[in-house]
Design goal:
By secondary structure, the protein is of the alpha/beta class. 50% of the residues lie in helices and 15% in strands. The chain is built from nine helices and nine strands. The longest helix has 29 residues, at 100-128.
Length: 257
């Protein structure tokens, strides 16, 4: 039986990955900051699907948290076959309205943690000749909008480059780029959602099913909905100045987690 490790597992896209993978018979390592929620989630998934669900409390904004997850991913006696780097958050406010401490914390979670955990997981996967990593980015990666979009753009570029370097090793890497998903993400960031049209909202469970299908097909970037695929097609040909203006009006509200 294979094992998947999911960061940010207790809500949103992370919880949807946990439900889907548990239903398919995968054992899980659930990672988040809230031990109580993690234990409740682990118990529920074990009772529903008969899988083993391990709890790992870790704050990925801290070196100690990243190191704890790195150690679990490096455990050769209990290998992880699939890593879902999902943990993330948004900051309310434009550039210079957000504190430098919060900006640096975002880079720690979105970039440094993703780099270190992907490296820890992929090293063992390459030795075994199989494995997969899904790094959750965002459609915000494709529009010019502050630290959030820049960090997610880094996730996409890093994942594509690492996937190329590991081609033929049996290790698959994919950047997942969803749009707006109905999760706790915006509420946690203190962001309003009234100006977001209904058609732009995605269902987390359907998104995850599409993402896993794209991973199985060997895609390195997944935009898991026809509406957003079409929107990203427009983004590719639109002037950068126009995109910047639209992104500025919508605020920092692109966020999947």
């Amino acid at each position: 039986m294979t094992t998947a490790l999911i960061t940010g597992s207790t809500a949103g896209i992370g919880a949807a990955f946990a439900r889907r993978l548990a239903s398919e018979g995968h054992n899980l390592v659930l990672v988040a900051r809230d031990t109580k929620r993690l234990r409740e989630q682990a118990t529920e998934l074990h009772d529903l699907h008969g899988i083993e669900a391990e709890v790992l409390t870790a704050d990925l904004s801290l070196d100690s948290g990243i190191e704890a997850v790195e150690a679990r991913l490096s455990d050769r006696k209990s290998p992880v076959d699939l890593l879902i780097n999902n943990a993330g958050f948004g900051n309310k406010g434009r550039f210079l309205e957000v504190s430098m401490a919060d900006e640096l914390t975002m880079l720690k979670v979105h970039c440094e943690a993703v780099l270190r955990l992907t490296s820890a997981a992929a090293d063992g996967m390459r030795e075994r000749g199989r494995g997969g990593v899904v790094n959750v980015a965002s459609v915000a990666a494709f529009v010019p909008r502050g630290t959030y979009g820049a960090s997610k753009s880094w996730v996409v570029q890093f994942t594509q480059g690492a996937a190329k370097d590991l081609a033929g090793s049996g290790v698959r890497l994919m950047a997942l780029c969803p749009g707006f998903v109905r999760t706790e993400f915006h509420e946690r960031a203190g962001m309003g959602t009234d100006n977001i049209p209904n058609w732009m909202w995605l269902d987390a469970d359907k998104l995850v099913a599409s993402a896993l299908a794209d991973l199985a097909r060997g895609k390195t970037v997944s935009v898991p909905d026809p509406r957003y695929k079409a929107l990203m097609g427009v983004v590719k040909v639109a002037p950068r100045g126009l995109l910047g203006g639209v992104s500025s009006r919508t605020g920092r509200k692109y966020g999947p987690q």
